[in-house]
Amino acid sequence: MKPDAAPAQGRLHPITIAVREMAAIFGRMGFGIAYGPELEDDWHNFTALNVPEDHPARDMQDTFWIKDQPGKVLRTHATSVTMRKLEEMAKNGIAEMRWINPGKVFRNESTDMTHEAQFYQLDGFAVGPTGTVTLASLKGTFDRFYREYFGQNTRVRFRPSFFGFTEPSVEIDVWFEAPGGKGQWLETAGAGMLHPNVIKNAGLDPEKVQGFAFGGGLERLIMIKYGIPDIRLFHSGDIRFTYAFDQLTENSKQGTV
Amino acid sequence: MKVSRAWLQTYFDTPLPDTQALSDALTFHAFEIEETVGDMLDVKVLPNRAADCLSHRGIAKELSAILNLPLKTDPLRQPLPYRDIVSPYLTVEIEDSNGFDKLTAGKCLRYMGAVVRGVKVRPSPSWLKEALEAVGQRSVNNIVDATNYVMLDIGQPLHAFDAKGISSILVRDAREGEKMTILSGEEYTVPKGTLLITNAGTSEAIGIAGVKGGKAAEVTAATADLIIESANFDGTSIRRTAQVLKLSTDASQRFQNRPSPELCAYGIREVLALIQKIAGGEIAEVVDEYPARPQESWNVSVSLAKMNGILGSRFTRAHHRL
């Protein structure tokens, strides 16, 4: 290397870029970023979230349990962070909260083009006094998030579903038109209104507090936006992949207000 | 849950729309569809609706509401026949470590048993074979097929035992190291405490409760008399047994989602009627041990204000219809 050459620069990973971009969009809607432990306890990952022991709903997520640490799991979703935040709300007598929880989660399943045993989730929630944060708020929030992240032609659709921690529960589909491609509906996240039992388990009164929660694969959103065919590329360590992304997106330039 | 359009059609006078339209109707109002192949839809019923929708009747009821088509018949709305619960041919006893006495429900919430004498075991009629094969089931014989058909139709798991040598059934916990051979011929050592269906006379296990029937009382071409079981077992207990034995069956999947024990009576009515139709025989009295009998029925209510408050909608009395 010549002595006057500029030093080689590092590069942000595309997941980091995406998290910053999504955080900026949600930030403009009043959401902060919350983190929690990846090694979770059964209470915050399952039981408090209304997925009791020996309930068939536990079969919906294949879990890594920890040897010699009974009751500990590698969290299967970042919704565990929501639970911790709700507990904090009860403890400190806070009336409303909005957080996104972007983080790594783990599933005990075989990997293929669309499945990884560890991946990122964009999880989050908004709660407030009864009647203020509704299923319609959830739709509005995602409508805006996807328009800003994917583009203005994006549309959002809900389909009925089931998760232990929400009632009613929905799957969120996004109508995405790849540049020059045909539009199609794509499944992106699960969501719903927090189940009264979850609110209760956090130490809050479900008669007084309600809100929505959501969660979905984060890589999947990046894959849709940039047309990436294989989720395993994100953890491949291939520098050519990393260099294919602009580090500063329009959304993160705008910053949070 | 695999359902066929032709089977669903038996619930409606009006012709149902095509498979694609049924798939869309369910997708946007009730359940995801895993795949559709010809006449068959594989409906992904999640745990919140598995108690009532792992059945053609359940899916038909959903479609009736979504498409605004009246149900022609609803087997769960037809009054049950009165039956004497004392039978000279069969006694049933539940000896259940979780239950305190006859009136306290433990792992067996209800056990109905019916004796049918003089049946002709033979291949099923073609309509029944076709109905089962359309949803990926294998036809065995008219008796086994009848129990499977009624389970897939209204959701109640059923089992037929060869009644030879059985006059008394004991539902009890497995003893230490107890062995049992299931219908497929595999031998299992069942964990202590697993709920078994046993022949009280010989103390032999004839079924793993809610999971799988045993070889010892298999219905074969030589079978003349049957004991038909329509029972309900605790979901947690069944889920554990199925997990430990790595034996997930149509029955265990239903029981772990806690169908109503009330369904047993409808299940036995339907299966006895079908068996008489396709296998003949004479129905003796039906025994009904019901430790979990509900003392009163519950009403569920919801207010418009509550609904609007959660959904963010503006429904009024004008949208409301019973």
Describe the protein's topology.
The complex is a heterodimer of chains A (257) and B (322).
Chain A: H1 14-28, E1 32-33, E2 39-41, H2 42-45, E3 72-74, H3 79-92, E4 97-106, E5 118-129, H4 135-150, E6 155-163, E7 166-177, E8 183-194, H5 196-201, E9 209-217, H6 218-226, H7 239-242, H8 250-254
Parallel strand pairs in A: 1-4
Antiparallel strand pairs in A: 2-3, 4-5, 5-9, 6-7, 7-8, 8-9
Chain B: E1 2-4, H1 5-9, H2 19-29, E2 32-37, E3 40-44, H3 50-53, H4 56-67, E4 91-95, E5 108-117, H5 126-134, H6 142-154, E6 158-162, E7 168-173, E8 179-181, E9 187-189, E10 195-199, E11 204-208, E12 212-213, E13 226-233, H7 235-244, H8 250-255, H9 263-279, E14 282-289, H10 304-311
Parallel strand pairs in B: 4-7
Antiparallel strand pairs in B: 1-3, 2-3, 5-13, 5-14, 6-13, 7-10, 8-9, 10-11, 11-12
Helix pairs in contact in B: 2-4, 5-6, 6-9
Structural class by SSE content of chain A? alpha+beta
Strand content of chain A: 25-35%
CATH topology of the largest domain in chain B: Phenylalanyl-tRNA Synthetase, Chain B, domain 3
Number of helices of chain A: 8
CATH class of chain A: Alpha Beta
Query: What does the radius of gyration of chain B come to?
Result: 21 Å
Number of domains of chain A: 1
Q: What is the assigned CATH homologous superfamily of chain A?
A: Bira Bifunctional Protein, Domain 2
Specify the biggest β-sheet of chain B.
5 strands, mixed
SSE sequence of chain A, one letter per element: HEEHEHEEHEEEHEHHH
CATH class of the largest domain in chain B, please?
Answer: Alpha Beta
pLDDT below 50 for ≥5 consecutive residues: which ranges of chain B? 99-104
Based on the structure given, which CATH architecture of chain A is correct?
Answer: 2-Layer Sandwich
